[in-house]
């Protein structure tokens, strides 16, 4: 089955994370029957980034706490997005890097057929660099996975 052009889940997650405020985010997702949330995280530890995104997803009902496959799908989606942020080197603090990120999580079906089921997208945008103010640069990562 084909992707619906207007339902590109990764594109929506990326636009949400780049949006300047919540009203702009609402306008981007308006009309779609998808769940979504956004937030911020900054850390020198990748596991704290993962934990912040997982916590937000649980608090906003994007994944069910007691359904392992949903948490597992989210984990792999986050890891894929982090690979984009860290250019494939998943280390942060141990090699003197820190991140300041905004994130957006979207859950929905991007396909024409409902039988394709739901998918997750995680977009990350912010800065990465040495733990010295002003010595960072922009970064963007995206992960998409089926549930």
From TrEMBL:
Does Transcription regulation appear among the keywords? yes
InterPro entries assigned to the protein according to its UniProt record, in alphabetical order: Regulatory_HutP (IPR015111), Regulatory_HutP_bacillales (IPR023552), Regulatory_HutP_sf (IPR036482)
Record has RNA-binding as a keyword? yes
Q: Which domain of life is it from?
A: Bacteria
Q: Name one GO biological process term.
A: L-histidine metabolic process
Pfam families given in the database record: HutP (PF09021)
| SUPFAM superfamilies, per the entry | Hut operon positive regulatory protein HutP
Coiled-coil regions in this chain?
none
Ordered alphabetically, the record's keywords are: Activator, Histidine metabolism, RNA-binding, Transcription, Transcription regulation
Q: Name one GO molecular function term.
A: mRNA binding
Matching entries from HAMAP family are given as:
HutP
The record's listing under NCBIfam families reads:
PRK03065.1 (NF002838)
Q: Which family does it belong to?
A: Belongs to the HutP family.
Function, as annotated: Antiterminator that binds to cis-acting regulatory sequences on the mRNA in the presence of histidine, thereby suppressing transcription termination and activating the hut operon for histidine utilization.
Quaternary form? Answer: Homohexamer.
Name the chain's protein: Hut operon positive regulatory protein
Organism the protein comes from: Brevibacillus fluminis
